[in-house]
TrEMBL record:
Superkingdom as given in the UniProt entry: Bacteria
Keyword Ribosomal protein attributed: no
Provenance organism: Ferrimicrobium acidiphilum DSM 19497
Swiss-Prot/TrEMBL keywords: ATP-binding, Coiled coil, Cytoplasm, DNA-binding, Nucleotide-binding
An example molecular function term from Gene Ontology annotations: DNA binding
GO biological process, one term: chromosome condensation
InterPro entries reported for this sequence: P-loop_NTPase, RecF/RecN/SMC_N, SMC, SMC_prok
Coiled coil: 300-355, 609-671, 714-845
The gene coding this protein: smc1
Descriptive protein name: Chromosome partition protein Smc
């Protein structure tokens, strides 16, 4: 991440819009006092999130808005924009450039923008923190901060290191964890108090529930005995009614014999007519069935046509599969061809690379390099002459320096060996962590896919279960209603056995009439057993309400009058009768509502009991099927839900483990990077220390030799310079041709790689398409064979059935002729039977009178029985069937039933009133108590987790601060040695056993000085020590840029050179922006920004100089092209 530019408008002394460009390296902001240089630093601090007016040298924030000047009005708004180059994606935003703006008006309104979009200050701060540009990262360093750091106490130094190590974030998390632990502890106490209160309330409720259960048991026994006594009373009334019924049965039997004899005679005269009707009806039914068979063959013929179409589609799928296989072979061949071309290109690239290496090896020295060499040789000669004078004075110092170098070399070698050993261990550990993390990522993805599949299946089954539950509730309600309406018969009725299709129950019940309620038994023994168990009157027989003459004309004369009273309008009645007249008068018509039309009979509607029985059978079958499906779904859900829960738990555990591994890998990677950095530093230091210190006398003689050699070399180089320039031009031309060849090969290789990837993708698509087509072909062939066989078998069976029906219809024709002849002979016998009927009529009248008396007595007794039963039902609230089945407990003798009943009544009175809601209230309280137990367990677990998190955060904080102190100590020691020539520096804990609370101090050693505390050093030395500490922190915790506001003001010329060398070193890692008046600092700058104050009282950027030789600008020799005048 790189700082590109800063835009200011209305900020302090910058009244007009001003833009300052920043390049890589060191940018020096120069200008006279009072021109507004420090205002640039304040603008940077403000846009980076500074909130305190004191940090920007203000009494209140409104003062940062331009206050006006000579002839210029004050402005009402200040705005600063900072722009970064985010090409390295250090900030996780999908943008190559990031622009952050902060504006404020005089009424205190603030506006923040991120790439033009309005946002909050916290959003800007969070974005900057990703690039280590937070408010506490010490990227803006002023002279006052240098002074305060030199006099800082241990806690203040500790704060700087904690900010760099981002321990403050963890400290906030630690405080949150501590508050969470306190909150959980308080919640645990509150839950315990509620649990004790529930237990106190449950104890008396349990006593009430026990008393309620005792009374309920006594009441149950009392009701059972009372019900049995009532049953015995009703049975006595029933026995009296049974005796009267027996007398009636004897009379009825005799009457039945006479009537049966008469009916035999009548049936003999009337059997042929119904037989004829039945024969004709059978022929009609056979014709209807044959029509239905022929109609059923139509969809089968259509199905056979569909199978033929399926054959054609199967052939098309097979053809497409062949085409796909051919494409697969073509693509595979293309892939092989592309791979061969890629191998040829790789060979060409290798040959070209070898040619480039050979070409670079014989490349001539560039003319500019020779010119630089001439300048360097001249500088070396001047330097050697000065060195020759200086060496005499440093002979004694070199002797002592050699001893110091040997000691430092030994320490560096030891530390370098330790760092390399630790680096090997850390890299091995990092490789293991990355391997584990890769395996865990694959397993986690598989587990997530499995969980999603199970959740989808559970949702589908749960939806179907809810749908079935709704259907079951509706069907259950219908079955209960129909069961009450149909009655609880012991045997299955004929209507229930038929189970008609939905919607035809009333029509079938109307046609069957009373027969729909007839009981169906499997054997005669079962029928006799049912007759013995049930009273005779509970069975329904068919008793015609009116004897019909069988004359259709009489029916059509009387029917209109009856129909007119039950139907709206005469037209409907007439149309129905017209339809009957035009058709066969012996036929029967019935509609879905149960209305039956037949010669001599009109029945509107059917018996509700019969219809209910038919509908009950249908609904019971549907209810059984739905119940079975519901049970299967419930079973499957019971299997899937634990599986989903287990998968979710496994997924959560795996995600936690993955996060832990990721954090571990980041820690190890950070440590490896730190070790690499330290190893490189130690290697450079060893290389420097291993160079022996030459003896002064030998060095003096060698200097003379070097001066002579340099003079000779200068003459040779000058002579060769012209020759090398020609060679360099030829070399550049040939190198350009090689570069163009390399680019061409690279483009061709990229194109081949793209074609190879496209061909591979196409091959994968063709493989998938081939698999799908193969499955379709196999599936279609299988279904085709099965469907064709089934259709042909059904067609053959239907044709055979149609032929059989035709044969049956032909067999009925001779039988019909014989019946017609028998009717004629029957007329002759009817006249003789009439004479015998008159003789028996007198006997029938006598028996009918006796039967009437017996029936009256039986009716009186049964009426009394019904009255008693109704009274018993009202008194007990139970159905009569339940009363009739009442039994006495085995432990009670029948003779002791009534005394026991009185004794139970007395015990119930003694128990007294009870709370019927106690059990319900007790259950609710026990459920609540169980919830509190679960909540207590959860709270305790949360308490343990919070304490664990507290310990982990403390451990992480200690690890970070220790690691930061160790890394900064290495850099601080290196910079102290560089700045003070043999000086050392270290950062130490006052209490190493308590890294989280211990103060931190700087331990420094400067040659020839005994340092007791930093305050005793000179101003320049304090500044250098403070800068060494801050730059060591920035080296360990890199930032995109650092701003230095006149921090070298207290340094002399010698220390200025050290400072300039220091910022040059820092500029290798980040941009350096320095506000300065010092010429030595300007000399090392890569770009200069001049700030001036206009006569009207506002600042301008006078010039923005970009040059490789800043000393030209300083000396006044500035080329015209290097100046960019920017005036407000």
């Amino acid at each position: 991440m790189k700082l590109q530019r800063l835009k200011m408008m209305g900020f302090k002394s910058f009244a007009d819009s001003v833009t300052i460009e920043f390049n890589a390296g060191i940018t020096a902001i120069v200008g006279p006092n009072g021109s507004g240089k420090s205002n640039v630093v304040d603008a940077l601090a403000w846009v980076l999130g500074a909130q305190s007016p004191r940090l920007m040298r203000l009494a209140k924030m409104e003062e940062l808005i331009y206050a006006g000047g000579d002839g210029r009005q004050p402005l009402g708004r200040a705005e600063v924009t900072i722009e970064f180059d985010n090409a390295d994606q250090q900030v996780a935003l999908p943008m190559a450039e990031i622009a952050m703006s902060r504006a404020m008006t005089r009424n205190g309104d603030a506006l923040y923008r991120l790439n033009g979009a309005q946002c909050r200050l916290v959003d800007l701060v969070d974005t900057l923190s990703e690039a280590n540009l937070g408010k506490t990262q010490h990227v803006i360093i002023s002279q006052g901060e240098i002074e305060s750091l030199a006099n800082a106490k241990g806690d203040e130094i500790r704060g700087v290191l904690e900010d760099a190590a981002q321990v403050s974030v963890l400290r906030r998390r630690l405080n949150q964890a501590e508050r969470h632990v306190e909150s959980v502890t308080q919640s645990l106490g509150e839950v315990a108090v509620k649990e004790r209160e529930l237990r106190r309330r449950i104890k008396p409720l349990r006593a009430q529930v026990s008393l309620y259960e005792q009374r309920a048991e006594l009441t149950r026994r009392r009701d059972a005995v009372a019900l049995w006594v009532l049953r015995r009373r009703l049975e006595g009334y029933g026995e009296q009614a049974q005796q009267a019924a027996e007398t009636l049965r004897v009379i009825t039997a005799r009457l039945g014999e006479l009537q049966e004899h008469q009916e035999v005679v009548e049936r003999r005269s009337s059997t042929l007519e119904p037989l004829l009707v039945r024969l004709r009806s059978a022929r009609q039914e056979i014709a209807d069935l044959r029509g239905e068979v022929l109609a059923a063959m139509t969809p089968l013929n259509e199905l056979e046509a569909n199978i033929a179409r399926t054959d054609a589609e199967l052939a098309m799928v097979t053809e497409e599969l062949d085409r796909v296989n051919g494409s697969r072979r073509d693509v595979s061949a293309r892939i092989d061809e592309l791979e061969r071309e890629g191998e040829e290109l790789a060979v060409q690239r290798a040959e070209l690379s070898a040619e480039r290496r050979r070409f670079d090896e014989r490349a001539p020295v560039r003319p500019v390099e020779l010119e630089t060499l001439v300048a360097e040789l001249r500088g070396q000669r001047s330097h050697l002459l000065a060195e020759q004078r200086r060496q005499r004075m440093e002979r004694e110092r070199r002797d002592s320096e050699e001893q110091s170098r040997q000691q430092r070399r030994l320490r560096a070698e030891t530390r370098n060996a330790e760092v390399k050993d630790e680096l090997v261990v850390r890299e091995r550990e990092l490789a293991e962590v990355e391997a584990q993390r890769g395996e865990l990522v694959v397993a986690l993805e598989q587990q997530r896919l499995e969980l999603e599949s199970v959740q989808v299946e559970v949702a589908d089954y749960a939806g179907r279960e809810r749908e079935l539950q709704g259907q079951l509730r509706v069907l259950g309600s219908q079955v209960n209603s129909l069961a009450k309406l149909a009655g609880a018969d012991a045997a299955t009725s004929l209507g229930q056995t038929l189970m008609p299709r939905a919607g035809l129950a009333q029509a079938v019940a109307a046609v069957l009439g009373e027969l729909s309620e007839a009981h169906v038994y499997d054997s005669v023994d079962e029928l006799l057993a049912a007759l013995d168990a049930e009273p005779v009157e509970s069975f329904v027989g068919y008793v015609p309400s009116k004897e019909g003459s069988g004359d259709a004309s009489a029916f059509f004369e009387e029917a209109p009058q009856w129909l007119s009273t039950h139907f709206e309008g005469v037209r409907l009645v007439d149309s129905v009768l017209d339809s009957l007249r035009q058709g066969d008068s012996s036929g029967t018509l019935v509609d879905r509502s149960g209305t039956v039309f037949r010669a001599g009979l009109l029945r509107v509607g059917a018996s509700q009991r019969a219809v209910a029985q038919l509908q009950l059978a249908t609904h019971q079958r549907e209810l059984a099927e739905l119940t079975r499906e519901h049970d299967e779904i419930a079973k499957r859900l019971a299997e899937l839900r634990p599986k989903a829960s287990s998968s979710r738990e496994t997924l959560n555990a795996a995600e936690g483990e993955l996060k832990a591994l990721t954090r571990r890998g980041e820690q190890i990677a950070s440590r490896v990077a730190s070790l690499h950095s330290e190893s490189g530093t130690l290697a450079v230091e060893l290389e420097f220390l291993q160079t022996p210190v030459e003896d002064a006398e030998e060095m003096a003689s060698s200097v003379d030799t070097e001066i002579t050699a340099i003079d000779r070399q200068l003459e040779e180089v000058t002579a060769q310079l012209d020759e090398r320039r020609l060679l360099t031009q030829e070399y550049e031309r040939e190198r350009g041709e090689l570069e163009r060849s390399d680019v061409s090969i690279r483009l061709k290789a990229a194109d081949l790689a793209a074609q190879l990837k496209a061909a591979s993708d196409r091959l994968a698509e063709l493989d998938a398409r081939a698999d799908v087509l193969g499955q379709r072909a196999t599936s279609g062939d299988h279904h085709h064979v099965i469907g064709l066989a089934e259709v042909r078998g059904l067609l053959a069976r239907l044709r055979s059935l149609a032929e059989q029906l035709s044969q049956q219809a032909n067999l009925l024709l001779p039988l019909e002729d014989r019946v017609v002849k028998a009717r004629a002979e029957e007329e002759k016998e009817r006249e003789l039977a009439e004479q015998r009927r008159v003789a028996r009529a007198l006997e029938l009248e006598t028996l009918a009178s006796q039967r009437l008396d017996a029936a009256t007595e039986e009716s009186r007794l049964r009426s009394r029985l019904l009255t008693e039963e109704e009274a018993a039902v009202r008194a007990t609230g139970l159905p009569i069937a339940h009363i009739r089945q009442a039994v006495l407990p085995d432990v009670i003798a029948p003779t002791a039933a009534e005394p026991l009943l009185a004794e139970l009544e007395d015990q119930i009175v003694q128990v007294g009133q009870v709370n019927p809601l106690a059990a319900l209230e007790l259950g609710e309280l026990e459920e609540e108590l169980e919830r509190f137990r679960v909540e207590t367990a959860d709270v305790r677990e949360a308490h343990q987790q919070a304490e664990k998190a507290f310990v982990l955060i403390e451990s992480e904080m200690a690890s970070r601060i220790n690691e930061m102190v160790a890394q900064v100590t290495v850099e601080f020691d290196r910079l102290m040695e560089r700045l003070f020539r043999g000086g050392t520096g270290a950062i130490i804990f006052d209490d190493p056993t308590a890294p989280l609370t211990s103060s931190i101090s700087l331990d420094i050693k400067i040659p020839a000085k005994k340092v007791r505390r930093l305050g005793l050093l000179s101003g320049g030395e304090r500044s250098l020590v403070s800068l060494a500490f801050l730059f060591a922190v920035l080296k360990v915790r890199p930032v995109p840029f650092v701003v230095l506001d006149e921090v070298e003001a207290a340094l002399d010329d010698k220390n200025l050179s050290a400072f300039a060398s220091l910022i040059e070193d820092v500029s290798q890692d980040c941009q350096v922006i320095v506000v300065t008046h010092q010429r030595r600092t300007m000399e090392v700058a890569h770009s200069l920004v001049g700030i001036s104050m206009s006569p009207r009282g506002f600042s301008n950027v006078v010039r923005h100089v970009l040059t490789d030789a800043p000393q030209d600008y300083i000396s006044g020799e500035v080329p015209v092209d290097g100046v960019d005048d920017r005036s407000a």
